[in-house]
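Q: Sequence in, structure out?
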Amino acid sequence: MITYLKIIVIVLGVMIAAGLVIIGIKLVEKGGELAELSEDDGETVEAGAAPEAVPAALPTPGDLGLPAGSEVQRMTAAGHRLILVVAVPDAGERIVIVDLRNGGMVADIGLEGAP
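A: Exactly. Output:
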Protein backbone atom coordinates (compact mmCIF):
# COMPACT_ATOMS: atom_id res chain seq x y z
CA MET A 1 0.00 0.00 0.00
CA ILE A 2 2.77 2.43 0.97
CA THR A 3 4.63 1.59 -2.24
CA TYR A 4 1.64 2.70 -4.29
CA LEU A 5 1.43 5.97 -2.38
CA LYS A 6 5.13 6.62 -3.01
CA ILE A 7 4.66 6.00 -6.72
CA ILE A 8 1.62 8.30 -6.85
CA VAL A 9 3.49 11.08 -4.99
CA ILE A 10 6.50 10.77 -7.34
CA VAL A 11 4.29 10.81 -10.47
CA LEU A 12 2.34 13.81 -9.23
CA GLY A 13 5.58 15.63 -8.36
CA VAL A 14 6.93 15.01 -11.85
CA MET A 15 3.63 16.26 -13.35
CA ILE A 16 3.78 19.46 -11.27
CA ALA A 17 7.40 20.08 -12.30
CA ALA A 18 6.54 19.47 -15.98
CA GLY A 19 3.58 21.83 -15.71
CA LEU A 20 5.78 24.57 -14.24
CA VAL A 21 8.30 24.11 -17.03
CA ILE A 22 5.55 24.39 -19.65
CA ILE A 23 4.17 27.55 -18.00
CA GLY A 24 7.68 29.06 -17.95
CA ILE A 25 8.18 28.29 -21.65
CA LYS A 26 4.82 29.85 -22.55
CA LEU A 27 5.63 32.99 -20.54
CA VAL A 28 8.94 33.38 -22.35
CA GLU A 29 7.25 32.88 -25.73
CA LYS A 30 4.53 35.44 -24.91
CA GLY A 31 7.14 37.91 -23.66
CA GLY A 32 9.00 37.55 -26.95
CA GLU A 33 5.81 38.18 -28.92
CA LEU A 34 5.04 41.29 -26.88
CA ALA A 35 8.59 42.58 -27.35
CA GLU A 36 8.29 42.09 -31.11
CA LEU A 37 4.98 43.96 -31.15
CA SER A 38 6.35 46.88 -29.16
CA GLU A 39 9.45 47.08 -31.37
CA ASP A 40 7.46 46.84 -34.59
CA ASP A 41 4.52 49.23 -34.15
CA GLY A 42 4.60 50.45 -37.73
CA GLU A 43 7.55 52.77 -37.33
CA THR A 44 11.06 52.29 -38.59
CA VAL A 45 13.81 54.43 -37.14
CA GLU A 46 17.26 54.36 -38.67
CA ALA A 47 20.31 54.30 -36.43
CA GLY A 48 21.43 57.82 -35.56
CA ALA A 49 18.13 59.35 -36.72
CA ALA A 50 16.63 62.11 -34.60
CA PRO A 51 13.47 61.14 -32.72
CA GLU A 52 10.16 62.41 -34.02
CA ALA A 53 9.19 65.85 -32.80
CA VAL A 54 6.90 65.91 -29.78
CA PRO A 55 4.37 68.73 -29.51
CA ALA A 56 5.29 71.43 -27.00
CA ALA A 57 1.88 71.12 -25.36
CA LEU A 58 -1.23 69.05 -25.76
CA PRO A 59 -3.84 70.62 -28.02
CA THR A 60 -6.62 72.65 -26.44
CA PRO A 61 -10.28 72.05 -27.35
CA GLY A 62 -10.03 75.07 -29.68
CA ASP A 63 -7.06 73.49 -31.49
CA LEU A 64 -9.17 70.39 -32.11
CA GLY A 65 -11.92 72.38 -33.80
CA LEU A 66 -14.33 72.06 -30.88
CA PRO A 67 -16.45 75.08 -29.94
CA ALA A 68 -15.63 77.37 -27.04
CA GLY A 69 -16.89 76.07 -23.71
CA SER A 70 -16.09 72.42 -24.50
CA GLU A 71 -14.86 70.52 -21.45
CA VAL A 72 -12.86 67.31 -21.23
CA GLN A 73 -14.85 64.87 -19.07
CA ARG A 74 -12.50 61.86 -19.18
CA MET A 75 -9.24 60.94 -20.88
CA THR A 76 -7.27 57.76 -21.44
CA ALA A 77 -3.85 57.24 -23.00
CA ALA A 78 -3.48 54.21 -25.27
CA GLY A 79 -0.09 53.87 -26.93
CA HIS A 80 0.51 56.95 -29.09
CA ARG A 81 -3.13 58.01 -28.77
CA LEU A 82 -5.02 60.11 -26.25
CA ILE A 83 -8.74 59.36 -26.10
CA LEU A 84 -10.84 62.24 -24.79
CA VAL A 85 -14.53 62.30 -23.87
CA VAL A 86 -15.51 65.92 -24.40
CA ALA A 87 -18.75 67.65 -23.36
CA VAL A 88 -19.68 70.13 -26.08
CA PRO A 89 -22.25 72.80 -25.18
CA ASP A 90 -25.61 72.22 -26.90
CA ALA A 91 -24.24 69.17 -28.75
CA GLY A 92 -23.77 66.45 -26.11
CA GLU A 93 -20.63 64.39 -25.74
CA ARG A 94 -17.98 63.53 -28.31
CA ILE A 95 -15.06 61.13 -28.34
CA VAL A 96 -11.94 62.76 -29.72
CA ILE A 97 -8.80 60.73 -30.45
CA VAL A 98 -5.53 62.70 -30.55
CA ASP A 99 -2.17 61.48 -31.89
CA LEU A 100 0.35 62.29 -29.15
CA ARG A 101 3.27 62.28 -31.58
CA ASN A 102 2.11 65.35 -33.49
CA GLY A 103 -0.86 66.68 -31.48
CA GLY A 104 -3.26 66.22 -34.41
CA MET A 105 -6.79 64.88 -34.20
CA VAL A 106 -7.22 61.34 -35.53
CA ALA A 107 -10.99 60.95 -35.04
CA ASP A 108 -14.01 62.87 -33.77
CA ILE A 109 -17.02 60.72 -32.93
CA GLY A 110 -20.34 62.25 -31.90
CA LEU A 111 -22.41 60.60 -29.18
CA GLU A 112 -25.65 62.53 -29.64
CA GLY A 113 -27.84 59.41 -29.81
CA ALA A 114 -26.09 57.54 -27.01
CA PRO A 115 -28.09 56.86 -23.81
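Residues 1-40 form one domain.
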